[in-house]
Amino acid sequence: MLRELRVGWTVFSTTRWLWIVVLAFAALNAIQTGALQTLGPPLAKETFGAAGWGYALSAQSIGLLVATVVILRVSLNHPLRAGMLGVSAVSLPLLILGLNPVVLPLVVAMFVAGAGGETFNVGWALAMQENIDESMLSRAYSYDMLGSLVAMPVGQLIYGPLGDAFGYQDVLVTSGILY
Predict the structure, then answer these.
(1) How far apart (Å, rounded) are the C-alpha atoms in residues 64 and 67?
(2) Statement: residue 11 has pLDDT above 90
(3) Which one of 89, 125, 128, 133 has the fewest beta carbons within 10 angstroms of its own beta carbon?
(4) Does residue 106 contact residue 77 with C-beta atoms inside 8 Å?
(5) Spatial separation of the C-alpha atoms in residues 100 and 95, rounded to whole Å
């Protein structure tokens, strides 16, 4: 098992684009999880209500599904580039929540963010499958998942205190800009 971990680490650490994107997503996932999932619900409850938050989350899922259907029919010449551009749409709901938390613009932003996130998922899967040797793919995915998801609990832990210290909306706007 240790040998397999070393072999996987060698593939991961020597594939520059792979570890750079994974490192970036450690930060992006911490921001998204902390800002949206930690600060979003209480801010929604204070402003437009729990039902509005439910509409926003549903719109995000619908955006993901719509993007899946569209991507099945459209050929992406540069799937990873399209994915990176698409995932940047996650900044939109953060900015809307921070600047003017109103349901309809948030629902639209969450739809776009869901579609953008799915565009990234497809682009990333294609990039991995086209550029990583099939015999090493599961090992590369393992380090990808570890690196991409490891900071999410950190984001959830720090965003509550950040929101309390600096104000939820200011932290959300800053997070949207950083994202």
Answers:
(1) 5
(2) yes
(3) 133
(4) no
(5) 8
With a CB cutoff of 8 Å and minimum separation 6, the contacts of 6 are none
Rounded Cα distance, 110 and 78, in Å? 24
Conformation bin of residue 60: beta by default, left when phi > 0, alpha when psi is -120 to 50: alpha
Distances (CA, A) of 134 to 19, 47, 129, 166: 18, 49, 7, 47
Secondary structure of residue 75 in the 3-state scheme: coil
Token pair recorded at residue 116: 């953008």
What is the distance between the alpha carbons of residues 107 and 134, in angstroms, rounded to a whole number? Answer: 39
pLDDT band at 71 (very low <50, low <70, confident <90, very high): very high
Using DSSP's 3-state secondary structure scheme, residue 101 falls into: coil
Token pair belonging to 62: 């619908």
Pair of tokens at residue 115: 């579609």
Contact 43, 95 (CB under 8 A): no
DSSP element (H, E) containing 153: helix 152-166
